[in-house]
Amino acid sequence: MKTEMAMPLRGISLCSFGILCFLLNLNNLISPAAGYVLKDCRVTRTTQAICQKNSFNLFPKDIPLIVTSIDLSQNNISKLNNADLKNLPNLLSLNLKCNSISIIESGTFVVQMSLEVLNLNSNRLCKLQEGMFDGLVNLTELHLTSNRIKTVAPGSFKSLTKLKFLDLGHNKLHQLKNILQHTPHLQYLSILANNISNFHSWELSNTSTELVSLDLSLNELRVFGLSADIFPNLTRLNLANNGRKNGIVWDVNDTSYLRRVSKLYISGCRLQEQQKVLETFNSSLIFLKLNQMRNNLRVLINISCKIPSLTSLEVRKNDIKYIRSDMLPLCTNLKVLNIGSNKLIDISNNSFQSLRKLNILIMKSNRLKSVPYAVRKTAISKLDLSYNNIIILRCDDFANMTRLSMLHLNNNPLSALQDCVFKDLVNLKFLMLQNSNISKLNSAFIKHLPNLQVLDLSNNQLTLLDHGQFKALNSLQNLTLQGNKLQKLNKGNFNGLSNLTYLNLASNVIAKINIGTFGDLKALKTLYLMTNRLKYTSEKPINDPPFAELSQLDTLYISGQHRHLKSAFPQNLLKGLTNLSLLNIRGNQLISLHPDIFNYTPNLNKLYLSANDLRDLPDNLFSPIQKLKALYISQLNLGSLDFLLLANLTELKFLQVRKNAFSVISETVLQSLPALKYLDMKFNSFSCNCDNAWFIEWVKNNKKTQVLDAYNFDCKFPPNLKGKKLLNIDIRSCTVDIGFICYICTACAVIMTIAVSFTHHFLQWHLVYTYYLMLAFLYNSKHKNKRAHQYDAFVSYNANDEGWVLGELLPNLEDEQGWTLCLHHRDFQPGKSIMENITDAIYSSRKTICVVSRDYLKSEWCSREIQVASFRLFDEQKDVLILVFLEDIPMQQLSPYYRMRRLLKRQTYLSWSRADAHPDLFWEKLRQALDTQEHPMGEHLRLTVEEGPPGERPDQ
């Protein structure tokens, strides 16, 4: 019996386990993984996590897996644990500068095999430990400047076999030992501003490297010694600001050790053997810095200029006031000369006469009052005279300088330009005149500068542009007039600028743009008009839209117009801008926008509307600009975002709605923006109730849209939650927990399956009995008051016992004693269901005689008959049941037949097997049982002398 039970239960358990697993998986599908909204960081479009200036004390744990770059600079992190980065295997760049990191546990970077750039500048590391950088097998850049590093353990850089850039500047190193031991591919090494006093090649293990640049500046270097060829590829050597006390001892055994150095920085150095040092680079030096030398400068210049390969010389911050003709006579091969920041007052006429190859001359940040005559005797292409004291430009200042292509005259106290000043600059392409106090251009650009491409006149004192002011500038592409005092623009102001693509008119006082102003700018792509005083008071169409002829314009800024009164834009202001991609009209005190204003800009993809008073935007305002990808609508006092429902902005990726008046975010609004990647809703008045429950869940769980700074959203309503954080509000009472429901359903399914299995195996007969008991109860309730006894007894027997019933029972009871019996084979009504016939027969008879045998106990229909009869017995509390046993059946064989065994414990019975000797007594007892009235239970007639079940003797 135990084996029979175990197998079904085991099968049911496996089935239940399968159902449980399925429902749990379904729960996982319904409840998505957490999204990537961060508490104090934001993820940019290039998968960079920006977490700077957030006062972090520990490495944040919620940075998503998709991030490839992290900026954690300017925080308070003091330690990196080996578990901090274990979930970020895709990192390419990690910026931890300006923290307080003093400890990096071994194994911290073991999963950062993709990391290429690590920035640990400005921390508190004192020692580079063994295994500190294990795992960084692909690291190419390591920044460790401005720490407190004193020592480097031998195996610190063991994993950094691909390292190319190492910055150890501003630390406390005394030697270079162990630095290049495991970095064979290092190309750039900076050890500036340490405590290194002696540099010896043997410290670097005498191994050849790929080093290209070595910076030893700002140390107290006393000896520079090379006894081996360890720098065969070195091209840049910086020794600036060393040897200030006693000078540097130059101990290089073979000049070929530095045979490829082309850039040498010895500014501020004190060299014991200047000539010997410079002769070391005699065959390769191209660029030389001699800044802040002061002593023996003339000698150094002469020695340097004897190097035939030298083409670029920088002599800055040496307090040179005068340059005479004998200062640069040997520099015949120079192409670039920088003598800026020297307090120059005068330059003799022949100072540059010997510089026949000179191409670039830089004299910025001096005290020159005029353009030196000496420049006319050069063939330079670039001249920088910015930040001097030049008051006026004369007609012959640039005489015969036909090769000049770039001229910097900015930040000089110029007041006006003469007509002839640029007459010889036929190849000039870049002219910088910004911050120069110019109030009049006169005719400087009407006849000359045919090849000029860039002209910067920003931050001057121009008030008016004359007709054809730039007529000769046919090649001009970029014109900057920002920060002047222009009041209006007229037709012809830009005549001749047919190739202009960039025009900056920002920060003037332009109040009006007259008809045809931009008519000549057919190629214009970018126009800045912000921070002016353009005035429009009505949305009514204007006769001559100012931008009607700018069909190629791509970018237009007309933000921040200074007005005293709130205003509007004409509905056709943007007419003609069919290629416009970016429009900025923020901060214009607009009170409304006409629904048709964007009908003329179908290609717009970035729109700035913030900082206006547009409380109600038309529902169809954005319908014409279906290609919009970025929308800025902050500070508009918007009460809702429902106007976006009809906009159909299916390509919108960035939405900024800061500082508005809505408190509830509609789910349908965000569903109407399927491409949204970034949502900025900072500084709004959020309601922390069930109206925003879906939004809170969406912010936390959606994996498509990043809600910037969502963890800092404050509650404003209701009053008792004011100041709380929106995402910290408990919304469990507002939402249906799908996971919990699935859990309950799963648990119920398992319990029901187990219960059914248990019941089926242990309580099957009880259930069957209960079922038929219920049927009998319903029948009894229905026919209780209208029932009449048609028969004296209903005989319940098995077909195998039909011979005894017809041969013995029927003749004795009906023929001899005159009782009326109900037999199923002759008295059941055809057409009725078997159960209905059984129930009618039992309740239509005064008594029920059950002829019990082993076959009877196995019969399904006999079982049902005795069950209905037993219900009548207990329902009516009358003696209506007579049991006749045809054979002796032991009690243990009655155990499976629960109902029969129970009846035997309460009812007496007749046994035919014991009536062989006295059959007449048997029939008399049966007659007495039929003849008795329906006594209450417990008062029935004793039928036999035995009260135990058949097969058991009274004395047993």
UniProtKB/TrEMBL annotation:
Keywords, sorted A to Z: Glycoprotein, Immunity, Inflammatory response, Innate immunity, Leucine-rich repeat, Membrane, Receptor, Repeat, Signal, Transmembrane, Transmembrane helix
UniProt main location, coarse: membrane
Protein localization: Membrane
GO CC term, one of those recorded: plasma membrane
Region (Disordered): 937-956
One BP annotation, GO: signal transduction
Signal peptide feature range: 1-35
Entry keyword annotation includes Kinase: no
Gene Ontology molecular function: any one: signaling receptor activity
InterPro entries recorded: Cys-rich_flank_reg_C, Leu-rich_rpt, Leu-rich_rpt_typical-subtyp, LRR_dom_sf, TIR_dom, Toll_tir_struct_dom_sf
PROSITE patterns: LRR (PS51450), TIR (PS50104)
Keyword Lipid metabolism belongs to the record: no
Domain of life: Eukaryota
Membrane-crossing segments per the record: 630-649, 734-756, 762-779
Membrane topology of this protein: Single-pass type I membrane protein
Domain spans labelled TIR: 789-930
Family indicated by similarity: Belongs to the Toll-like receptor family.
Protein name: Toll-like receptor 13
Species of the source: Gadus morhua
Organism classification: Eukaryota, Metazoa, Chordata, Craniata, Vertebrata
